[in-house]
Amino acid sequence: MVEPPNAKEFLETILSNEQARPPGSEQAAIDNQTMSALLNLLGKKHTIVILHQFATGAGPLRFSELEEVVDIAPNTLSNRLEELTEVGLLTRKAYNEIPPRVEYNATEKAQDLAPVFWYLGVWTERHDLEPVSAADRRR
Amino acid sequence: MVEPPNAKEFLETILSNEQARPPGSEQAAIDNQTMSALLNLLGKKHTIVILHQFATGAGPLRFSELEEVVDIAPNTLSNRLEELTEVGLLTRKAYNEIPPRVEYNATEKAQDLAPVFWYLGVWTERHDLEPVSAADRRR
DNA sequence: CTGAATCCGGTCCGATACTG
DNA sequence: CAGTATCGGACCGGATTCAG
C-alpha cells in the first residue's frame, strides 16, 4: 500500500468543507483559471514525477538526487525546478559551500497535493495500462 | 464546491483498504511500472485536460466537443484519443451516419481517476499559482 | 459535415560538454 | 555539485486534404 501521509485526518477535513463556493461566483471563475494553470503545469513533462518525489518523501531534495531518481536531462530539470519555484510550490535554498549545495523544499501548497499522488498509487494497485484488444475499444 | 462524484463512499472505501500490498512483492514492482506508465501518459501534453473532461462531465464526448473545450490541434487530439483508447481508459464508438458521429466514453478505469480531478478542484479553492516574489522563493 | 491523415514549421526535450 | 550552452531530434500546432 502506498504511504498515506496523514490521509485520514486530511480527508476528513476536506469532507467537512461542504459547499465552499457559490457555483457561478467570481471566485469560481478564478478557481477555473487556477485549475487550468495547474493542469497546464502538471501536463509538462516530468512535472508530476518531480512533485511526486516531494509529496511522498519528506524533507529537502537536492538537484543531483532528483536527477538520479527522475531520469531527466539537467537542463530540463533546471527548467522544471524554476517553474515550480516561481509558482510557490517549491522553495530553493543555496548554501555557500564547496562543493556547492542547493536544497529544494516542498511548500505547504505542494504538500497539499500529496493526496493526489497517494491516490494515484491506490489506482495503480487496482488497474493497469496494458494495451487493450481492438474489440474492447468499441462499445 | 467541486462536485464530489461520490466522495464520501469513495474515500471510506479507500481508507479501509489498508496494507493491500507487501512492500517488496512482485506485485509492488508491477504497480511501480504501471505508475511509471501512468505518469508518462499524463505527462504528455493535453492528456490531463482531456481526462479531466471525461472524469468530471458524465456521458460521452465527441471529437468536436473536445476540440472546442481543450484548445488542441486536431491531429494531436486524434493522437491522444487513440493513446487513451489503446490503454483502456476510453472506448470509441463510431456511428455510420451522415454527418458522421464518433463518441468517446470513459471506461470504469478512467472513472476511477475522477477523485484525482475532484481533489484538484478542492485544491484550487484553497490555493493559487500566482508568481511568487523572488524573496519568498528562498527559505 | 465530421473525424482524421498528411505535410511542414516551430517549440520543447534529451544528451553531452562545459563552467563557477 | 549544480547548473548553463549547444545542438540534434522528437513532439506539437496549423493548414490542407481526404474518406465516409
Keywords summarizing the entry:
homodimer; 139 residues; mainly alpha; Arc Repressor Mutant, subunit A; globular; DNA-binding
Outline:
2 copies of one chain form a homodimer. Chain A has 139 residues and is mainly alpha-helical. Chain A is 53% helix and 10% strand.
Structure notes:
Chain A is mostly helical and 139 residues long. Chain A has a domain of 91 residues: Arc Repressor Mutant, subunit A. Chain A is built from seven helices and three strands. Chain A has a three-stranded antiparallel β-sheet. The longest helix of chain A has 17 residues. The model of chain A has no long low-confidence stretch (mean pLDDT 88). At the A-B interface, helix 1, helix 2, helix 3, strand 2 and helix 7 of A face helix 1, helix 2, helix 3, strand 2 and helix 7 of B. Chain B binds a DNA duplex (20 and 20 nucleotides) through helix 4 and helix 5.
Mean pLDDT of chain A: 88
Radius of gyration of chain A: 18 Å
Please tell me the CATH architecture of the domain at 32-122 in chain A by its name: Orthogonal Bundle
Order of helices and strands of chain A: HHHEHHEEHH
End-to-end distance of chain A: 33 Å
Instruction: List low-pLDDT spans of chain A.
Output: none
- How many helices of chain A? The count is 7
- What oligomeric arrangement do these chains adopt? homodimer
CATH H-tier superfamily of the domain at 32-122 in chain A: Winged helix-like DNA-binding domain superfamily/Winged helix DNA-binding domain
InterPro entries (chains A, B): HTH_HxlR, WH-like_DNA-bd_sf, WH_DNA-bd_sf
Domain HTH hxlR-type (chains A, B): 33-132
Keywords (chains A, B): DNA-binding, Plasmid, Transcription, Transcription regulation
GO molecular function, one term (chains A, B): DNA binding
